[in-house]
């Protein structure tokens, strides 16, 4: 793919001219820097606001103003059933059946709720296998869950780290760790895409190995949902959770998503923390004792939908469903390869950049994590003062995410030009 690139402005213009998704960019608002759109490479932390969000929120405000409490039952999208209006598009994003997904709560709250059901340690099986250096919220969730069940984290949590001198995990090491600890493993709980390195894990192979070891398998898809195409149903994962404010562009604190595989849909014996919105909707308003879960992921709901955040999320999901994850992935591979090509050119010219994200497109989404040694913070600050929005992760990583939904090849070239300017000023 790299052979199609060069370092000229014409290359970027030609790539943008061939981009079949270029029109999506106009559906988003960009922050401004000195009267121009910023170069926004931070969709892996907070996605841009779709222009369709404001009218979606205004519709719900009007619905509330017009109907009051009866808004739960009136209109085109009565609030009573609002979570259902998001199911099809959410299922498309993660490769699931509609009944296997539900939008509810937030990411870590959902992780804890599903671990109530899927982390059931006993004297024989009590370990959790996860990646070392997981996002802190996941680390805290695992620590608190094992302590809640009476185990010490150092005994119950097995962390898989890259080999010495390497920056990302080898799939064979993950699978071997699962085999090694399998007889004592209750849960394999991994990321879909690693937040720091940008590595896309082999979800299917990890799930298969976990099941062969007799464990249940779950995934945190915070950096995967909306970034890479998935087939959670086919890959047989037991459960997964994700957020909506990163690649899914649904606003700060946006609602979380949950996947529970179809094979668990009718298992009413699975322990869970129940709430009335997960109760059989045909009998929900009878206000009776005795929890009867709804079928599928919906049975894990606790409370009625947060309508305004759900409306924002639906506005974004509608764009994803229209664009298609396949087309987004195709552009993502091109954008990321183009950024990789230009970073390599800067390295050859003397800027000490080092990409720690896997070079294989099958092992990454659109994020490239880059180190620059002692100059790293200076480079990041230079970019920030010149209208580039990306992010810094201690101790020395700049994360750059050329997001196919709204980034252009021209954006990537402009970033390259700024980095070239930094190099010339500091030689």
Commentary on this structure:
- The protein is of the alpha/beta class and 427 residues long.
- It has two domains: 149 residues, Aspartate Aminotransferase, domain 1; 268 residues, Aspartate Aminotransferase, domain 2, CATH 3.40.640.
- The chain contains 13 helices and 17 strands.
- The strands form five sheets. A seven-stranded mixed sheet has the order 6-12-11-10-9-7-8, sandwiched between helices. A four-stranded antiparallel sheet has the order 13-14-17-16, with helices on one face. Strands 1-5 form a two-stranded antiparallel sheet.
- The radius of gyration is 23 Å and the shape is globular.
> How would you write the strand order of the largest sheet?
6-12-11-10-9-7-8
Percentage of residues in strands: 5-15%
User: Mind telling me the C-alpha Rg?
Assistant: 23 Å
CATH class of the largest domain: Alpha Beta
What number is the mean pLDDT? Answer: 96
SS class: alpha/beta
| C-alpha geometry | globular
Number of helical elements: 13
Q: How far is the N terminus from the C terminus?
A: 31 Å
The total count of strands amounts to 17
Total separate domains: 2
Largest sheet: 7 strands, mixed
CATH fold descriptor of the largest domain: Aspartate Aminotransferase, domain 2
* CATH architectural arrangement of the largest domain: 3-Layer(aba) Sandwich
Task: Give the uncertain stretches in residue-range form.
Answer: none
Order of helices and strands: HEEEEEHHEHEHHEHEHEHEEHHEEHEEEH
What is the name of the CATH superfamily of the largest domain?
Type I PLP-dependent aspartate aminotransferase-like (Major domain)
Percent in helix:
25-40%
């Amino acid at each position: 793919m790299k052979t199609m690139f060069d370092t000229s402005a014409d290359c970027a213009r030609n790539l943008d001219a061939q981009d079949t998704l270029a029109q999506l960019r106009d559906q988003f608002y960009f922050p401004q820097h000195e009267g121009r759109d910023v170069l926004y490479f931070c969709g892996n932390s907070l996605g841009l606001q779709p222009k369709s969000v404001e009218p979606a929120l205004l519709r719900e405000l009007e619905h509330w103003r017009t109907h009051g409490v009866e808004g739960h039952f009136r209109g085109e999208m009565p609030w009573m059933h609002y979570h259902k209006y998001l199911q099809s598009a959410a299922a498309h994003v993660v490769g699931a059946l509609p009944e296997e997904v539900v939008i509810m709560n937030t990411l870590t709250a959902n992780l804890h709720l599903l671990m109530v059901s899927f982390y059931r340690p006993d004297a024989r099986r009590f370990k959790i296998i996860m990646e070392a250096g997981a996002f802190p919220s996941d680390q805290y969730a695992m620590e608190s869950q094992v302590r809640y069940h009476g185990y010490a984290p150092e005994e119950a949590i097995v962390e898989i780290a890259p080999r010495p001198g390497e920056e990302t995990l080898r799939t064979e090491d993950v699978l071997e760790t699962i085999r090694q600890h399998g007889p004592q493993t209750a849960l394999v709980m991994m990321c879909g895409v690693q937040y720091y390195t940008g590595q896309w894990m082999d979800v299917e192979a990890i799930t298969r190995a976990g099941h062969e070891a007799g464990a249940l398998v779950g995934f945190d898809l915070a950096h995967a949902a909306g970034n890479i195409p998935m087939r959670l149903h086919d890959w047989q994962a037991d459960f997964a959770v994700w957020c909506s404010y990163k690649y899914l562009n649904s606003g700060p604190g946006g609602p979380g998503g949950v996947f529970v595989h179809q094979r668990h849909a009718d298992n009413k014996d699975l322990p869970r923390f129940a709430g009335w919105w997960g109760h059989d909707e045909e009998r929900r308003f009878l206000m009776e004792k005795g929890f009867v879960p709804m079928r599928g992921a919906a049975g894990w709901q606790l409370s009625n939908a947060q309508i305004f955040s759900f409306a924002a999320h639906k506005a974004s999901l509608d764009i994803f469903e229209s664009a298609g994850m396949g087309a987004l992935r195709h552009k993502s591979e091109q954008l990321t390869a183009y950024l990789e090509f230009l970073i390599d050119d800067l390295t050859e010219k003397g800027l000490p950049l080092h990409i720690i994200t896997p070079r294989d497109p099958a092992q990454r989404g659109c994020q490239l994590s880059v180190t620059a040694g002692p100059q790293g913070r200076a480079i990041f600050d230079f970019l920030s003062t010149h209208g580039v929005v990306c992010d810094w992760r201690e101790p020395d990583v700049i994360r750059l995410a050329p997001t196919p939904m709204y980034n252009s090849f021209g954006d990537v070239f402009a970033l390259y030009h700024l980095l070239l300017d930094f190099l010339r000023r500091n030689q």
